[in-house]
Amino acid sequence: MYPSRFRYEAPRSLDEALDFLRVYGDEAKVLAGGQSLIPLIKLRFASIELVVDINNIPGLDYHRQESDGSLSFGALCRHVDLEHSELLRRSQPTMAAAAPLIADPIVRNRGTLVGSLCHADPQGDWASVMMALGGEIIAAGPGGRRTIPVSDFIMGPFQNALRPGEIAVEARVPAPKGAVSGNYLKLERRVGDFATVGVAVALETSGSTVSRAGIALTGVGPSNIQATAAEQALVGSALNANSIQQAGRLAAEAAQPKTDHRGSAEYKRHVVETFVTRALGSRGAVAA
Amino acid sequence: MAQALDEIKIGGLGSSRKRVEDDRFLRGVGNYTDDFKLTGMLHMEILRSPVAHARIKSINTAKAWQIPGVHLVLTGEMAAQHNLAWMPTLSYDTQPVLATDKVRYQGQEIACVVADDPYIAKDGCEAIEVEYEPLPAIVSPQQAVAADAPLIRDDKEGQNDNICYRWEVGDREGTERAFAQADMVSSLSLHYPRSHPSPIECCGSIADYNPATTKLTVYMTTQAPHIIRTAVALVAELPEHMIRIISPDIGGGFGNKVPVYPGYVASILCSILLARPVKWIEDKSGNLISTHYARDMYIRGELALRKDGKILATRIHADTDNGSSFSDAQPSKFKIGLFHSAFGCYDIPYGYQTAQGHYTNKAPGGVAYRCSFRITEAMFFQERMIHAAADDLGMDQAQFRRVNLVKDDQFPYRTPFGFLLDSGQYEKCLDVGLDAIGYDEFLREKEQARSRGRRLGIGISTMSEPLGAGNSREYDILGIKMFDAAELRVHPSGKAILKIGAKTQGQGHETTFAQIVTHELGIPAADILVEHGDTDHTPFGMGTYASRSTPVAGAATAMVSRKIRAKARKLAAHLLEVSEEDVEWELGRFYVRGAHDRGVTIQDCSMAAYTNMPDGLEPGLENNAYYDPPNLTWPFAAYIVTVEVDPETGVWDVLRMVAVDDCGVRINPMIVEGQIMGGMTEAYAMANMQFMTYDAEGNCVGSNYMDYLLPTAWETPGFELHEVVTASPHHPIGAKGVGECACVGGPAAFVNAVLNAIDDTGVRNIDMPLLPDRVWEAIQYKHDISGAPPVKTG
Asked: Torsion angle of alpha carbons A79, A81, A86, A92, nearest 10°?
């Protein structure tokens, strides 16, 4: 596993990093946790002129609740930070459930939430979680900062909406308007495997009425899939056996699985339905 | 009174002394092949074939030669000039070192680049242009025998089909008579999927040919350094005394590091051509796709049964997928290893087996992955067949085994295939296991759970395997008889060095072999250094695999210790001024018969051997022993697993796993338990997640650890270990092999448990691995699941 020759820079400020990106354009790649980029380089699947290591840039490793109640996650916030986050345990059950299911403990020590979203692997767990939560990406570039909804940010397999010269510096989850509950269920053959099927569920309720529902699916399509019909079936009424069953069925219809060595398309669709039903059921959704 | 030594305290037999190897491994100061850096050393990388079956039209190396820092680009054509384009396998076939005519599997070695560093060498490999003319790929025995199948081994004169061997053993007529008399016949077909031993350390070598001395030194990852030396001498036509193989610390072998690989041979040739040391270290994908696989066997068999549950005869046919070369690492007399050990632990009068081997466009191999020559497949089929037959008879799983297991008073027991089981208490092992798991209670619990929609299951696997080849009458590899040797030298101060021909890859020989000497001589284990792995400094041995180290090299160690003791007795008599007949032995000490206080220690004797020897006695205290075992050792195991299956997802969780192992006398119980837990982890992996397969074009699915799954501590269940001890009657210290038992016998216990949990569906078989989707499909459609999981289609 010996990569081709590449240049390596480790800038100490965001401006310096953006300067490198401006010069090198598409030939540069940003290194945060490196859990996808380094294997790609070592396998010589990606040939890169310049690696811009942002790990020396101070002030990017945070995750916090902003004054408006939203949650923000810096570009160097690691999966392991989220796995052990008291804040998430208290306020964001879907993310708290997903964090310990990301890859394996070694990957979680290095890998980052924002980096994982940028990599846009269709089997990545965080994109589903963020879609279900209506999350956003903050990109910094030569023209300043802009906000991109995660559902627009993920453009396809391994494709994100960053423009040349931009760095994703933060991920955000908007402030909830009701009581929060949710879960992330993942079927994997082994710890560290990609999801055979992953299901993210995020609910907001006022009283017993569901005011917002987010359901997104991992591993059952060319990209993470937002199950909008299933979401809509839940909004505006209380959760009951009928609506749960209907949401499960609609989510399974939204899935576009393919048969592979992780299972048949039929099986994966069935697990989507089972998991959505379980995640919405009385013992499935964890309240914040 | 002289105080008797406490054998456990000084690290003798039965002492769970800590492994002396661990200190250096845990501190990160072990010395693996890749840790050695020789002056002037260059680095070799291998270009591998991206396609499974193709004629090579051309290889253009011009661009690679032009890269600064590249010293040599070696092709098959160049290797052929040194008669090294092909090499012999361990099963009397041939295998290419570097392809000349065709490529026959994905990952096959095409060319090597030697450069100043491995990065440049890899750049060089990328710069080589190879033109392929694609041929249809054959990826199963069924395809290999199809009428229109292309001939894979068109290099072999007289080879007109894709069959590489045919084999039969047993009493065909007697078996047919028994089947004719049977009340019923139970049958089963299954596939044991292709797996890979996948040691964490990949293969590698540093070849150092010195043109001034003409000596070739090779540091390499081999489980069998002495056989390698002889093989290199014969293949490369070099004088054997000028070849030194050094096998340093090894990061796991599991059978993968028994064969000779093209990379080793190429690094040696490159070193000779360049007169510089050449290092080759394989990467993980290279290891997974090109080095020897294991299993990949299609088995169908039948049992002739009497209504009362007595088995009258077995009949089995096996089709093996041997890849592009017949290169099983196995004794030369047997074409499918010791597969005929199947059903050995049951008292069955008749048996007949046939087998056929097939060339396919897959990596060659058939190594015994943590297994003594195809025993894993034999025991897996045995215990799956026993499970199915008990169900067919409507008999309890434990009771059916009890009826048929060889009884204690039948030993030594001759099987219909000629094996001689040395000893055992089979029913007792089964009973210990049933008690531990709470068998009857679990069956009740299972029924109650079923009525509430939960699916619990229990699976049993009982088996005895022949470990510790040879004897020399029946067992040889490439003609070299399967004995082993040990040399023991006791220094004047009573400290000692033991040199053995076996070679640890993690089994702890440096710890346990000292304990054997301690048991025989009373020298504390901490005072004994064990040396191995360097052919210039250790006696000949066949190496460490097939659980043969303790049965053979361990026996040689006991025997050489006894020779030392015999000489020490003469020295003791001299020191005590009595005749030798009046000298008695107790651990670590000789004394005068009738006067226990008048004695000398083994250390007193060793000092005398160099300072005060009697007239006429040769000075010094050292000796050697070659041990040719009279029989194999026959450990027995009863493994019992309980599971819960989630019928909605097919996910199954292990509730409990009980292992009862009778491996005779345990030298170091802690290490034995570690071996059982490691083996059981691999058994769980096979049953639950692990497989290597190929798509229709011959692309290997399993070329990395995202596709080829090794279980981690997170999902591996806990194991509850129990023991029964039946000493081997013919081994000097009563020990038997154990390193492989759990890996061999374990998989069937897991599979049987899952099938038991869904026994109301009529499903008779799910081929491994029992991935959730396969279990769900079996439940959903109430049908068997056969073959490897589907490969990527999207």
From this structure: -30
Domain spans in chain A, listed from the N-terminal domain onward: 7-53, 63-173, 179-287
Q: What does DSSP say about strands B163-170 and B129-134: parallel, antiparallel, or unpaired?
A: unpaired
Q: Which residues of B touch A4 (CB under 8 A)?
A: 119, 123
3-state SS assignment for residue A74: strand
Residues of chain A short of pLDDT 70, as ranges, are: 282-283
Instruction: Report the CATH number of the B22-29+484-627 domain.
Output: 3.30.365.10
Chain B environment of A258 (Cβ under 8 Å): 793-794
Question: Which residues are within 8 A (CB) of B44 and not within 5 positions of it... i.e. 6 or more apart?
Answer: B112, B113, B114, B121, B263, B266, B267, B270, B278, B279, B280
What is the per-residue burial (b if ≥16 Cβ within 10 Å, else e) of B718-748? ebebebbebebebbbbbbbbbbbbbbbbbbb
Q: Determine the Cα–Cα distance for residues B630 and B632; give it in Å rounded to an integer.
A: 7
Nearest Cβ partner for B789 among A192, A261, A268: A261
- Chain A residues with CB inside 8 Å of B776's CB? 267, 270
* Complex-level ipTM: 0.95
- Residue A193 has its nearest CB partner, among B126, B701, B709, at B709
Kindly tell me if the per-residue pLDDT of B553 is higher than 70: yes
User: Average pLDDT for residues B273-279, to the nearest whole number?
Assistant: 98
Chain A residue with minimal CA distance to B708?
A: A193
Task: Give the pLDDT band (50/70/90) at residue B235.
Answer: confident
Specify the 3-state DSSP secondary structure of B93: coil
User: Among B265, B262, B281, which Cα is nearest to B273's?
Assistant: B265
Pick the CATH number of A63-173 from 3.40.50.300, 3.30.465.10, 3.40.50.2300, 3.90.550.10: 3.30.465.10
CA angle B276, B282, B287 (to 5 degrees): 150
CA-wise closest residue to B610 among B497, B492, B728: B492
B701: enclosing H helix or E strand = strand B700-701
CB contact under 8 A, A259 and B793: yes
Smallest Cα–Cα separation from B548: which of B735, B283, B793, B280?
B735
Nearest CB among A2, A187, A189 relative to B649 is that of A187
Q: Best mutation site among B694, B773, B785 for testing chain A: the one with the most A CBs within 10 Å? A: B773
Neighbours of B423 (CB within 10 A): 23
Q: Which fold has domain B372-467+631-781?
A: Aldehyde Oxidoreductase; domain 4 (3.30.365)
Is the domain covering A7-53 a CATH 3.30.43.10 domain?
A: yes
Please indicate whether, in this complex, the C-beta atoms of B772 and A187 are within 8 angstroms of each other: yes
Compute and round to an integer the Cα radius of gyration of chain A. 19
SS3 at position B638: strand
> How much is the pLDDT for B342?
97
Mean pLDDT of B301-320: 98
Cβ <8 Å between B793 and A191: no
Residue ranges per structural domain of chain B: 22-29+484-627, 33-135+202-250+257-290, 372-467+631-781
Residue A196: count other Cβ atoms within 10 Å of its Cβ. 25
**Predicted pLDDT of residue B2:** 67
Q: Is B118 on the interface with A (CB under 8 A)?
A: yes
Range A179-287: architecture per CATH? 2-Layer Sandwich (3.30)
The residues of B that are catalytic are 223, 370-371, 740
Residue with more model confidence, B658 or B232: B658
Is the preceding omega at residue A149 within 30 degrees of 0, hence cis? no
Confidence band for B792, pLDDT divided at 50, 70 and 90: low
Whether B22-29+484-627 shares its CATH topology with B372-467+631-781 is answered: yes
Please give the CATH topology (third level) of the domain spanning B33-135+202-250+257-290: Aldehyde Oxidoreductase; domain 3 (3.90.1170)
